[in-house]
Amino acid sequence: MKKKLFWIAIGQFISACAYCQILNANNLVATGLGGLATVFNRLTGADVQLLLIIMALPIFVWAFFSYSKKQIFYAGFSYFMFTFYVGIVNRYLPQFLTDPIAAAISGGVVGGIAGGIIMKQRVANGPESIVALYLKEKKGLSIGSYYLIINTVVIFSSIIYGNMTMIVYSLICTFVQSVVTDKLIIGFEKYYNVNIMSDQYLEITQFIRNELNRGATFIQGMDTSNVKKKMLIQAVVNQQELIAIKEFVKSFHDDSFICASISNNIIGRGFDVE
């Protein structure tokens, strides 16, 4: 628990830096309640921290009677740390003032790193997450669809005080952030699920095990062209190992067949992706 709280606090500090010192400083709009707070702040001049609290409080009160206390605790702690850090970084850290495209990319990268750190803890990271879970359970709306809808509404609401150019840059920032978050969660290494149909299945399997130090699975199949039984080899390898397998299988100069597809969330011996 202490480890989760530590990484949530670190992630929300980074998130607050991206929100205040990059996005807000360069007139870009963040997503979620932070983006709504920015819109209301620029329209009314109200304090951002106060707006964050006012918008989140009804959701937490409602969620208190609808979800487990553990989930509410992590979501509340995460949101509290973000709100707390917003006041700190605004007061003590310098703003990163730059051109819009640089701000969009750097804000997306920094925000994506923060999101990846927090999401790897497998907890609700704020009131938006609680609403997303509710809509998924009760209404069948996917979490991805929910975030797409709310973030689009938030960003386009900034047209009230901004312009379409800054909205486009905000959308670029959101895209970069989602890519970076996914990479931190899934990993930067690409893995492939490889299926090989060949008469030389013993030699190929020996190559995979001895030369690549990977496991392989046999699945009995049948070639429909000549109604002949063949052994299908299945293995999971990285990009360099896939190239090695392709070159080895080509060396037989026969009708061996290879099909490879990208695999995510590989868990097990020899793989570090979670």
Fold and architecture overview:
There is one protein chain. The protein is α+β, with helices and mostly antiparallel strands. The chain has helices spanning 2-23, 32-44, 48-64, 69-92, 100-119, 127-139, 143-157, 164-186, 201-210, 239-250; strands spanning 191-198, 217-223, 228-238, 257-263. A 4-stranded antiparallel β-sheet has the order 2-3-1-4. Strand 2 and strand 3 (228-238) form a beta hairpin. The radius of gyration is 24 Å and the shape is elongated. It starts with a helix and ends in an 11-residue tail after the last strand. The mean pLDDT is 84.
Counting DSSP E segments of at least 2 residues, the number of strands comes to 4
For the largest beta-sheet, the strand count, sense and barrel status come to: 4 strands, antiparallel
Task: Name the strands of the widest sheet in spatial order.
Answer: 2-3-1-4
Shape: elongated
- Alpha-carbon distance between the two ends: 19 Å
Q: What are the secondary-structure elements, in order, as H or E?
A: HHHHHHHHEHEEHE
Helix content: 55-70%
Please report the number of helical segments: 10
The low-confidence runs, each spanning 5 or more residues with pLDDT under 50, are none
Radius of gyration: 24 Å
Mean of residue pLDDT values: 84
**Coarse structural class:** alpha+beta
Strand composition percent: 5-15%
Organism: Lacrimispora defluvii
Subcellular location: Cell membrane
Membrane topology: Multi-pass membrane protein
Transmembrane segments: 44-65, 72-89, 101-119, 140-161, 167-188
